[in-house]
Known about the structure:
Mean pLDDT: 93
Strand content: 15-25%
Shape: globular
Bound molecules: ligand G3I
Number of helices: 14
Low-confidence stretches: 1-22
Largest sheet: 8 strands, parallel, barrel
Distance between the termini: 11 Å
Radius of gyration: 23 Å
Order of helices and strands: EEEEHEHHEHHEHHEHHEHEEHEHEHH
Structural class: alpha/beta
CATH topology of the largest domain: TIM Barrel
CATH superfamily of the largest domain: Glycosidases
Strand order of the largest sheet: 5-6-7-8-9-10-12-13
Amino acid sequence: MIYFLLTFSFISACTKKGVTAGGTTPVPVPPVVVVVDTNLYKFMPFPMGASVGISLMKNNAKYSGVVGKEYNSITAENAMKFGALHPAENTYNWADADYLVAYAQANGKRIHGHTLNWYQNLPAWVTNFSGDSIAWENMLKTHIQTVVAHFKGKVASWDVVNEYFNDDGTIRTSVWVKNLGPDYIARCFQYARQADPDAILFYNDYGHEYSSAKRTAIANLISSFKTRGIPIHGVGMQFHMTYTQTDANINAAMAFAAGTGLKVHLSELDIRLNTNKLQTLVFTDALAAQQAARYKFVVQAYNAAIPKAQQFGITTWNVGDADSWVPSWQGAPDWPLPFDANYLRKPAYKAIIEGGK
Ligand code: G3I
């Protein structure tokens, strides 16, 4: 199998005879280059995605080139969040998300919606909202149903609720829980279902690879939804990982997800390297190799543990290292993604392909 650019330079063709006033002298001719290129998603046994930023898609040709070439599924990194779509009570701002949806449709890519309900990225009008529980319920329902209806038939799937649990398995304190009670989560799924009966509905969270308490809480939520007839079709495991994460922990997350019987999306994969948050760390070949080995292991573990019918796919959280949320979040440099800052393939790229075999 050929994974990378194969370049054949026909050195013998590099010169040809030219005629000058003084006689015949060699004139340089550029080498003939035959490029056999690859697309990451074509090697993968399940959809392969990236989250993307709209301004990078619009303004950076290298970035949009990689997205177009390498992935067959995309998620908006921020453009479908509450704060982006619904900045004021009676104002929806569809422009960025619509741009991405149009791009996906024109280029034959699946688009996964992220996210209808989260405790973060809320506009001030929501955090300052002073209505009673009926007004809160109406606001929640209106947002979910307006957004899902807007993208009906275009966005195949949604992270309905994101990060409902703390790492210890307790329910996170949020404006939603505070104003609507913990069972508001079930109604989010029902509202989404009413607005688009065909959409695949996910519960999305992080930490499955290190918190068995969170896994248990999510498993209990899913089984209670099943018992109560609340629609849920998928579990999203973000997988924002460190390269030191153990095989056993990764396998435990996969076993949990397989056991839900739902579709499983590794929804925000990235593998960070700067575990000590050093300002001086540099990206060495050795770190690149260790990161690649982790990428390969994660993909292999997913492919081996998750039954085919449950494999929704793997999505990395953005494309190139310079675009990652990780450096600003941890306050130190990092290189968590399969492409470098120039959108060149890192060893992790080939490792993902190897893992999918
Ligand atoms: O676009 C504005 C810009 O105009 C402004 O000057 C700048 C100043 O802070 O902010 C910019 O917006 C930022 C936005 O990212 C785009 O870069 C927001 O402040 C910042 O909060 C936002 O962070 C995003 C974060 O979610 C919060 O919404 C990250 O990009 C995004 O990667 C991150 O993604 C989350 C997933 O949704 C859920 N799982 C965890 C993951 C990582 O935190």
